Amino acid sequence: MLVDEHGRHVVPVRSNAFLYIATDPEVGQRVRTVAAQTKNGLVPVPFVPAPFGFGGTRRARGARTVKVTAPALNGHISWLEQHEPRGEPLSVVPPRLRGGDRGGPHSKIIYGRVLTPDPSQPLRVAVTLNAQRHGGRPAGICTAIVTKDGAGSGCALYPQTFAKTPLDFSWFGAGSGQFDVVAGVASDAVAKISALLANGQTLPAALHDNAFTVAVPVAHMPARLVAYDRSGTVIGASEPIRDSSGGASAAPGKASQILAAKAGVAHAELFVGPAAGGGECSYTKTYFSAHAAGMTVSCRPAAWQGKAVQLDVMSEFVAGRVRPDVRTVRLEYTHGAKTIVHPKRGYVLVAIPARHREPGDHLVRVAGVNSAGRTIAVQKIPAPARKSRAQP
Which residue has the higher pLDDT, 141 or 178? Predict the structure, then answer.
């Protein structure tokens, strides 16, 4: 059984799997809880809801406060300084993903290893101790977070990075967008790390050989990392970690379809719904085939911002919005042909004629015309990419 804003939904299980699809969802409609029906009754299923809205559309929440009882200052990573063979050698990671040796005040690698804080996750932490020159004293520490999709790295002065805090970390979005991954290194004083979420729950971080990682639900941000020593005393707490994603400032509610267009087997639909703060959002759904579809979201505040004509070319379609004083939109093609479009509620969605979709005869600009017939805005359209010819 699943629960969302529209109530409860009983979903059958087949071969130990289930699927629920909201056929006509509202903007912001999200599954909130999941439970399994067993012979002993309903059993809650651990579940993290997909977040909705960014940039001020969610209810503002502050990070939980943490009292640091005994601050851990001036820390070190002893095994790194002593060149102990923890984890794996740097050679298991391509040089471009290791961090260090890329210029800067502490760019020469003295020693480094690749660590696996959580063996169940495809994430590695490459840690290097660096000097300003080959054979010099340690001056910096570089940490590279390596995943199956790539890597990100950063460097800090060493051991100064642990002078006032026992934690050095970064975070990034992961996969579905329901979680941000937080990963980094901790000083020797740290025996345990937890993520304190905005809803009061805590998540344990995987910590091994001073490297750690934890997946934080975006829906429960902002969060803080809390570091403990072996006796369970709080020795450090991070500044609030806030969601790193961006997105449309959409408000919950029903979006209404106002325009549609067809181009052969492809078709598109434009919906309009409320935005946070009194603005408006448009949702342009495109269907090119049974296997290719997508949606573009664009939101604007109540007061108009930017150019008077703001249109995008999406393969066979032109879609977007225009300022209220634009009464007519004129699409102009390479050889002088024109198409006149009348916006609806300030929005445009129109199919480009097939003969005007080729590099030699394509849409070159869009003109916005006011009620007096005067052109008040022009948007130039880049030429489409040329199709490559098959080699004989």
Answer: 141
Which of 49-63, 143-157, 235-249 shows the lowest per-residue confidence on average (mean pLDDT)?
49-63
Bridge-based pairing state of the strands 192-196 and 280-287: unpaired
d(CA 8, CA 5) in angstroms, rounded, equals 9
Specify whether 99 is located in the same domain as 26.
Answer: no
Q: Which two tokens stand for residue 188?
A: 């020797």
Confirm whether 228 is domain-assigned: yes
For residue 26, give Cα distances in angstroms to 271, 272, 283.
11, 12, 12
- What b/e sequence results for 87-113 when a residue is b if at least 16 CB atoms lie within 10 Å of its CB, and e otherwise? beebeebeeebbbbeeeeebbbbbbbb
For the cut 90, the answer to whether the pLDDT of residue 165 exceeds it is yes
Cα-to-chain-centroid distance, residue 204? 23
User: Do 204 and 115 sit in the same domain of this protein?
Assistant: yes
Q: Are 347 and 326 in contact (CB under 8 A)?
A: no
> Could you give phi then psi for residue 6, rounded to 5 degrees?
-100, 10
DSSP 66-105: ---SS---S---HHHHTT---SEEGGGS-GGGS--SSSST
How many domains, in total, are found in the chain? 3
Q: What Å distances lie between residue 291 and 101, 286, 287, CA to CA?
A: 44, 11, 9
pTM of the model: 0.57
340: number of CA atoms within 13 Å, CB side?
A: 6
**92 CB-near residues (< 8 Å, 6+ apart):** 114, 124
Least confident among 76-85, 171-180, 371-380: 171-180
CA dihedral 3, 30, 216, 91 (to 10 degrees): 110
Tell me: do 232 and 98 sit in the same domain. yes
pLDDT-derived band of residue 225, with 50, 70 and 90 as boundaries? very high
Verify that 101 and 29 share a domain, yes or no.
Answer: no
Beta-bridge mates of residue 38? 41
Cα separation, 361 vs 386, whole angstroms: 12
Query: With bands split at pLDDT 50, 70 and 90, how would you rate the model's confidence at 387?
Result: very low
CB 156 within 8 A of CB 168: yes
Of the candidates 309, 245, 254, 257, the one whose C-alpha atom is nearest the C-alpha of residue 285 is 257
Confidence band (pLDDT; 50, 70, 90) for 47? confident
Identify the domain containing residue 14 by its residue range: 2-44
Q: How would residue 97 be classed by pLDDT, with cut points 50, 70 and 90?
A: low
